[in-house]
Amino acid sequence: MNITEALEFIRSVSWKGTMPGLSRTFGLLELMGNPQKDMKYVHVAGTNGKGSTCAMVSTILHKAGYKVGLYTSPHIYCFNERIQINGENISDEELAAATEYVRPLAQSMEECPTEFELVFCIAVECFKRRGCDIVITEVGMGGALDATNVIPAPEVAVITNIGLDHTEFLGDTVETIAREKAGIFKAGSSAVIYPASPSVEAVLEGVCREKGIPCRKADFASITSLSHSLEGQTFDCGSRKELFLPLLGQHQLYNCCVALNTIDALGERGWQITEEHIRKGLADTLWPGRFHIMGQDPLFIIDGGHNPQCFEALVKNIEDYLAGKQIIGLTGVLADKDYADMYKPVLPMIREFVCITPPSDRKLEAAKLAEHLRLNGAKATACDTIAQGVELAKELAGKDGVVLCFGSLYSIGDIQKAYSG
Fold first, then answer.
1. Whole-prediction pTM value?
2. Which residues contact 65 (CB under 8 A, 6 or more apart)?
3. How many Å from the N-terminal Cα to the C-terminal Cα in the chain?
4. Collapsing DSSP states into helix, strand and coil, what is residue 30?
């Protein structure tokens, strides 16, 4: 099996869509000999900030000398990004070999796993074959019934920022969603949580008490921002002084505080991580697609923000990094997002919108988004292709302006190809 055949097989079950539940994943892993039991884990759930937090923890542990697996989704540029070891994507050959092993086992099941479940099982097999010491695992959706929750009790279970998303599956209040995400808390673990409303914190801390596990809450008051530019930001976090992080935005300092609490929890459990490992790990953390500068003349920035909480962070980044700039918004969104409310805070900050259609079955057509934005007083043009959108946005921005791409992670790969092409 080659990589093309492997990806064709994985995508062949995409028709099943989202089907919460653990039975299919447990069943396939059982046929595989339960490779998930051979590794340690950090398990990360939340609405926003999961990927960035995972990237920071992973890079720090790699600097500490451990062989670290990283499982995230969705991918931005290529499928292999979902399965990384020590900061490098799994090779086509390794991905194909693991898929070839898993395929007949999955096909033998009475109920075939979903695409996400298949990919996670393939990832676990890749991590086992490479002998990973620890795997940083990002939850796909929710927590309790997410396919990743088949792992044994993790070393640390982390809940990042919680907001209203996927309400059709997770519930329509943040408290209900918090309880679903707290399903990753297991006896024998430690827990780290992102500060939230008292009602959400009560849910998370209550589950920790039920499970008998220690719970750390990140202290954002311990963060002092020292300087920031488009190259990165320097800050203090508690007793740790003058840390540097290339990821941009105040929200990334909050995510970093959560990551540092996770590292401290791992240290309490015997993992050998020095302050030098932490400094080097943060300074080398890469997480593309999050207020990421792709080029200059015009300044071309990509941000994967795709829900109201992400747009709030985007507004803050515009204020902090792009004040006084003429901004052209290159944007597309999925139809099932609350785009009517999402765009409200950015409308006054964008000179003109160039609308594109994301490459997803859940897409909102560019023409419909442009119409919505025009009805709300904005200037907006719909483009037939993403490549046309990139060219028009650059033309409108001119050499001294800014092209800011946002609205959907699904568009980023095609935007990058068009920009570089």
1. 0.90
2. 272
3. 30
4. helix
